[in-house]
Design a protein that fits this description.
CATH class of the largest domain: Alpha Beta
Distance between the termini: 55 Å
CATH topology of the largest domain: Rossmann fold
Strand order of the largest sheet: 5-4-3-6-7-10
Number of helices: 10
Number of strands: 11
CATH architecture of the largest domain: 3-Layer(aba) Sandwich
Shape: elongated
CATH superfamily of the largest domain: von Willebrand factor, type A domain
Radius of gyration: 34 Å
Strand content: 15-25%
Number of domains: 2
Largest sheet: 6 strands, mixed
Structural class: alpha/beta
Helix content: 40-55%
């Protein structure tokens, strides 16, 4: 037997002692104000519990409540629990092309919406989030708390966008490190794509580390102007407006590495389709074993007894004599 919150003994013992002192030393102070005849008329009848007994009951009740707040418990040992579900890493593209507005309101916001739809479609699975452009970084560690993950993703705005070139190799190294102890190793990428040359090294890293790639491609093949932070189109050296188009080479890389890809569209069907593919491939896979401590708490026993004693003490309060 031990207490989960033993600090309550030390925090509450001082007011408990002060209360006990005040109660036990409060002797007939009314006699200093009223004469004996008036005091007799105000005094209690004999049809009540003796003061000493009532005070003892109140002291015991308060002490038992302190014990309840300290949470007495007994450990029953450790237990290994098999955690069902998948562990996967998601990656959000924050390169300059994600400002383009060929999808509403722009590619970045559309990709964020799709990522949060994935969270909803995999409620019991453990998911981590990284953001990437020139240099990848962890946006949220692996967690099953989807509301927290949504909050972290929602916080990614235009200020995160990096106009430098996307380094897919750096992303691959980061992903390999984060998924090193996971099995299976699953990466879900939300991006407008990349050309075959840029993603060549990325594919080699994924293959070397047995990482399965799934891609949600945003944007259109028609393309849209690349915008700066002020929303103005960027121009090339020849003075023409720079246009960025969705490049499906990243999706083909996913298929070549045992994964799949979808083109992001309005609605939830695209993400649900991808989730169905993932679940069918890794059916009955587990995250692994988790060791949990089993304990039984007994706070309700002293709490119930304390409330009962308090009720008895108050219900036996003396009745005033009628004049």
């Amino acid at each position: 037997m031990h207490f989960l919150n033993p600090q309550f003994f030390w925090v509450l013992i001082v007011p408990f002692v002060i209360f006990a002192f005040l109660i036990t030393t409060n002797k007939e102070r009314l006699s200093r104000v009223f004469d004996d005849r008036v005091l007799k008329r105000l005094s209690a009848t004999d049809e009540s519990m003796p003061m000493m007994v009532r005070n003892v009951l109140m002291f015991l009740a308060i002490f038992l409540m302190i014990v309840a707040m300290a949470r007495p418990a007994m450990e029953k040992g450790e237990k290994k629990v098999e955690v069902q579900g998948l562990t996967l890493l998601t990656a959000l593209d924050i390169s300059g092309s994600m400002r383009s507005k060929d999808v509403y309101p722009n590619r970045l916001e559309f990709a964020k919406k799709k990522m949060m739809t994935l969270f909803d479609a995999m409620p019991s699975d453990e998911i981590g989030v990284v953001a990437f452009a020139y240099s990848p970084f962890i946006l949220a560690p692996f967690s099953s708390d989807k509301e927290t993950l949504k909050m972290m993703v929602e916080g990614v705005d235009d200020s995160y966008i990096n106009m430098g070139s996307t380094d897919f190799s750096a992303l691959g190294e980061q992903v390999a490190s984060l998924l090193k102890e996971k099995h299976p190793k699953i990466l879900v990428l939300f991006s407008d794509g990349g050309d075959a040359q840029a993603i060549k090294g990325f594919g080699d890293i994924l293959k070397a580390n047995d990482i399965d790639l799934y891609v949600v491609l945003v944007g259109s093949t028609k393309g849209a102007p690349v915008l700066d932070k002020d929303g103005k189109p960027l121009t090339q050296k020849d003075g023409t407006i720079a246009i960025t188009q969705r490049n499906d080479a990243l999706g083909e890389l996913a298929k070549a590495n045992g994964g799949a890809y979808v083109i992001a569209s309005n609605g939830k069907e695209d993400i649900q389709q991808l989730v169905n593919v993932i679940r069918s491939k890794y059916k009955n896979q587990q995250q692994g074993e988790v060791t949990v401590k089993e304990r039984v708490e007994y706070f309700y026993y002293p709490l119930g007894l304390g409330l009962l004693l308090l009720l008895i003490a108050f219900s036996s309060m003396p009745q005033r004599k009628e004049s």
